[in-house]
Write a structure and sequence with these properties.
7-stranded mixed β-sheet; single chain; Alpha-Beta Plaits; about 10% strand; disordered C terminus; about 450 residues
Length: about 450
Amino acid sequence: MGCWSLIIFQLMFVLYDTVYAPVAMPVTENLAVMLRLYVCIALAILVLVLKSEICRAVGREALLVATLWGVIGLAAWLAVRENHLRCFLELYALGVVPLVGIVLMQLRFVTALVLSAGGMAIVMSVVLGVSMPYAHMDFAIAFVFMAFCLFSLIASFRIEFSARHAYLMTSIDQLRLQDVESRNAELQEMACLDPLTQLYNRRHLIELLKQHHDDARRAKSGVSEAHPAPPLPCLALMMMDVDHFKAFNDHYGHVAGDNCLYQIAQALQETLDRERGTGIAGSLEAHDATLASVVRFGGEEFTALVAVRDLEHARSLAEAMRYAVKSLKLPHRESELGVVTLSVGLCVIPLSRLLEGEGMEDEMTQDMAIETLLGRWVDQADKGLYRAKRQGRNRTCVQRGNGKARAQSSDELRDERQGEQKAELPDHRPPMGGAGLS
């Protein structure tokens, strides 16, 4: 924009020099006209250079300042060489050059100051070194050029100040927004994190089930380049409760009980991570660790919702986690084995069951359907947990959808399985969360 303005400015000088030149002088012999046309061509080439990538920001400003000095110097040289009133009158218009450079070309304030100082030096060398045809004409030319430079510098300062202030305010707003988002993420993490065991709490189960719901929807739509690996076909919900934990607290104290829960939580999560790393647990896509995480459900009860291949896959994973707690060998005088053990209730659900809420237009209704399914599955896994407690603890019990269960822990239960399956569950159970289990 600035270079094109200078080209128009030079063409106006060409017209002025042509009109006021002697009538007998051909245009090709008019030095002022020819030089200004050459300047127009140079400015057009400069436009192309500035648009190319070879000209960086600092080099661009230096090139522009040199060009503007050249335009001012050309007018001053013509005034000295021709010593004609027409050329001296053109000096009055030289203030437009720094105005175009500073305002239209948007030079930085420091660069604009250098441009103005250099232009003023060129003009002062002419008005002080050449005899003017009229009195005080030299002062008038210097005053007009100085006024143009002064107002241009004020405009440059205000423009640069506004730009810097706007950038600063934008940066502050972005930093504040990032800080708010970071704090919200921390608060959300704290809301879903159990402070004692550093595991997710039961609120995380809903988000976990929604992620598995996305897997189920993806599996329904088919494999794509974005998702080359299909999710595992089943979900295993494990309800795990520490055996005789109330007696542990009564005998060893609550501080020891908290330490026991922390060690159990770490052992469960490490086991799940290890099994997931070997491809036994979790989704085939192992990029999201939260898809295979242990949750503290409440008190001494833990939960895990993991994608598995089938029932045997889920049972082997539950047994690995039960054995991990037993292998800690935490002393427990009130337990039959003398160490802290774990009972597990297991419920295996096809992943397609998560799509029961599909087709509902209201997203909130879908979330309520997912929460209802989770509550139903937790109830089934909780029945398996009660069955494991009734059968002697330290075992895994798989709960079927029809209310029957199969125990998987020791060889002696195989002879009792048929009799235990006929036993009815108690009609009045504690609220979901394992209150009353021990």
